[in-house]
Amino acid sequence: MQVLSVTPEIFPLIKTGGLADVTGALPAALAGLGVATRSLVPGYPVVMNALKKKKTVHHYPALQGGKAALHSAEIAGLDMLVLDAPHLFDRPGGPYGDVTGADWQDNWRRFAALGRVGADIAAGVVKDYRPDIVHAHDWQSAMTLAYMRYGEAADVPSVMTVHNLAFQGQFGASIFAGLGLPQQAMALDGVEYYGGVGFLKAGLQAAWAITTVSPTYAQEIRTPAFGMGLDGLINLRSPDLYGIVNGIDDDIWNPETDSHLAATYTSKSLKGRKANKRAIEERMTLDRDDGPIYCVVSRLTWQKGIDILSTIIDPVVASGARLAILGSGDAGLEGALLAAAARHRGRVGVVIGYDEGLSHLLQGGADGILIPSRFEPCGLTQLYGLRYGCVPIVARTGGLADTVIDANEAAVAAGVATGFQFAPEDAGAFHHAISRANALHAEPAVWAAIQKQGMKSDISWDRSAQKYAALYRMLLSKRDA
Ligand code: ADP
Question: Which stretches make up the Starch synthase catalytic domain (predicted)?
């Protein structure tokens, strides 16, 4: 089976969030199940620079205002099709905006082009290649499915995966003329969205199946509180809606081999974690003691509940715990955390920035990881925490609810607890969860049992890949029915 994955990000080349981890890891996991994946990605500078041996498989004399080419290449073990369109993608800054973070004004053009090319590939524009399934990720890829629906590849089964419904790709009605879609597409059951054009909306409407990255989030997005304006449509499409939890990349996230750690360790012996804890204390200028260190590795945003965290730092510090926080994001939240670090020298360490190595060290040495997200489609950091024996303390929402087993008395007695959950989403409940963690941390045997149980959780890509492969097969039988 041949799957074309269309994605704006792919690890290890270009990553702003969990989406890249998924699109980077799924191909290898699917390969073992008889599913061959080719990934169509924009030719950002980092991608073009990684292109060594390439074969040009198609030329566009004019694509959204300029010449473009499609190259086939293997990069980092991934089978890729790269959309080389310098007028759209050859620019400094991030994949979606300039160095200040301001969105590129022509994002609609950039990702309409990606979608157009995805649909062309589905229709057979690349010689000797015809995908059986097209799998689009997030709004940046969603127009692929709209172009397929109104073009020649309407009979190719498609999957739309929503990694985060908060990002929808909404544009004014005036861009419609530039999309090159038939007029009938500008309709309620097409790409039209609240009077403008909605890219994700168009993909949700056109997809044969919709997936999101956890069963709980799949249910949550059917409600107004989580649906972000799309709950009506998602409810209509609920017979075709699936929740599949992400896995993690075992080669990159493995405490037995991780070169970012001061000391590696196994689930049998967690001894090495101590050296990592000492390394964290040094790196984040924290006092040295045996009380718990709770870490945060996160975008510092409202979604991630960082404002809630900042309101309870004082009582958490008073309880004897230390905090090691790595992240970047909203300036106000960064400022609040830095102020807390200044207030609590030796007890609260804050590093503002993106640091892959430090994120590994924190998972490998901190006692727990705090994840107070207001919504969390899947979440990866709690999965890394489980794998590393860094006990997750999480809001009971989305993928966090699906992957962490709360250490209530019954779960502890049964030996199945892997972390702590709290609800509702407020400072009181969050603080209470941390207090429960403190209490169990003071009982080393209980804490070690929770850590080891978490490390046993099956969070491999194999499990998720089996579910995607089953979904693909179901769609093929629907096509053939
Ligand atoms: P989201 O995609 O919503 O940001 P996820 O938990 O799904 O949240 O994925 C976040 C990914 O980004 C994880 O791999 C996490 O380790 C990483 N990450 C987030 N912030 C940082 C940071 N400041 N430094 C290093 N890695 C980070």
Answer: 2-235
Cα Rg, the chain, nearest whole Å: 23
Number of residues written out for the chain: 481
Percent of the chain that is helix, strand, coil (3-state, to 5): 40, 20, 35
Instruction: List, in sequence order, the alpha helices (H) in 442-460.
Output: 444-455
> Which two structure tokens, joined as six digits, stand for 136?
């689009």
Distance from C-alpha of 204 to C-alpha of 212, rounded to nearest angstrom: 11
3-state secondary structure of 480: helix
**15 belongs to an annotated ligand binding site:** yes
- CB distance 242 to ligand 1 below 6 Å: no
Q: Is 7 within 8 Å of 116 (Cβ atoms)?
A: no
E strands of 166-240, at which residues? 170-171, 192-193, 196-198, 209-212
Please write the tens of the pLDDT for every residue from 275-304: 999 999 999 999 999 999 999 999 999 999
Residue 359 CB less than 6 A away from ligand 1: yes
Which residue in this structure is represented by tokens 């709209």? Answer: 146
Cα 381 to ligand 1 centre (Å): 7
What is the pLDDT averaged over residues 201-208?
98
Distance 308 CA to ligand 1 centre (A): 18
465 lines ligand 1 (CB under 6 A): no
Specify the DSSP class assigned to residue 275: H
Q: What is the DSSP code string of 339-398?
A: HHHHHTTBTEEEEES--HHHHHHHHHH-SEEEE--S--SS-SHHHHHHHHT-EEEEESSH
Per-residue model confidence as pLDDT tens digits over 428-462 = 999 999 999 999 999 999 999 999 999 999 898 99
Mutate to test the pocket of ligand 1, among 380, 403, 464 (most ligand atoms within 8 A of CB): 380
| Mutational pocket test of ligand 1: of 10, 162, 381, the residue with most ligand atoms within 8 Å of the beta carbon | 381
Check pocket membership of 297 for ligand 1, CB cut-off 6 A. yes
Q: Report the distance separating Cα 332 and Cα 264, nearest Å.
A: 36
Residue 407 phi/psi, 5-degree rounding, is -85, 60
Q: Do 142 and 136 meet the contact criterion of CB atoms below 8 Å apart?
A: yes
The answer to whether the Cα torsion of 276, 279, 283, 288 is positive or negative is positive
Measuring from atom 24 of ligand 1, which residue has the nearest CA? 354
| Cα 386 to Cα 381: distance, rounded to the nearest angstrom | 9
Is pLDDT above 90 for 99?
no
Query: How many other C-beta atoms lie within 10 A of the C-beta of residue 415?
Result: 10
Decide: 355 in ligand 1 pocket, CB within 6 A. yes
Report pLDDT for 100: 87
